[in-house]
Amino acid sequence: MQTDIPRRLGRICAYLRESTFYFLEGALNVKLQGIAFDVRWTIYSSFGVLVPGAAEIIPRLAEKYVLGILSSARLGPGMALRAQLEEDRLLHYFRAAFFSNETGLYKPDAAAFEHLLAALQLPAQAVLYVGDDPVEDIQGAQGAGMPALLFTGVRDLRRQAPAADGVINHFADLEAWLNE
């Protein structure tokens, strides 16, 4: 019986080390594994017009991260936005692309973000959401447990923004922000 004590203590210590590591990792900074984007005002400044830098940076991001799209698609059907992404040769970089008029799920409802996270197969804290709307994008993503980055390159709604995890003005700033 007494010979089991060192083995049991070893298992307990290993469990505590592992549990503490995961707790600290979650509390401090989980390594980002994915990035999700809104489409309107983030990838496109208007229908068919890419935000400067998006076409160059999205392929580079796809080499390091799982990418996804979650868009309210209020200004056009998801089918049209998907076709535009395909025409610009960007759609294949995204593991999942969801548009509210197709899913019936609207931001800032956490269910919309959870739908995307399930498709990306990543936990919320490991996926950065990039969007331009302080309520739909920032509050919505954070409400679902995701870090959120406010993009102000097309329209600057910073004054209305809650505490975003960061703010970028140019698409190129995203890479710099990720490398900080």
Summarize the structure.
The chain has helices at residues 4-28, 54-64, 78-87, 100-103, 110-120, 134-143, 171-179, and strands spanning 34-37, 44-46, 49-50, 66-71, 94-99, 127-131, 148-151, 166-168. It has 180 residues and is α/β, with parallel strands linked by helices.
Q: What keyword list fits this structure?
A:
180 residues, alpha/beta, Rossmann fold, two-stranded antiparallel ribbon, 7 helices, globular
Can you walk through the features of this model?
With 180 residues, the chain is an alpha/beta fold. It folds into two domains: 1-29; 31-179, HAD superfamily/HAD-like (Rossmann fold, 3-Layer(aba) Sandwich). It is built from seven helices and eight strands; from the N terminus they run H-E-E-E-H-E-H-E-H-H-E-H-E-E-H. The strands form two sheets. A six-stranded parallel beta sheet has the order 5-4-1-6-7-8, with helices on both faces. Strand 4, helix 3 (78-87) and strand 5 form a beta-alpha-beta unit. The longest helix has 25 residues, at 4-28. It starts with a helix and ends with a helix. The relative contact order is 0.15. Residues 13-28 have low confidence and may be disordered.
In round numbers, the mean pLDDT is 80
Question: In what range is the share of β-strand residues?
Answer: 15-25%
Structural class: alpha/beta
Might you state the CATH topology name of the largest domain? Rossmann fold
Query: C-alpha Rg, in Å?
Result: 19 Å
Strand and helix order = HEEEHEHEHHEHEEH
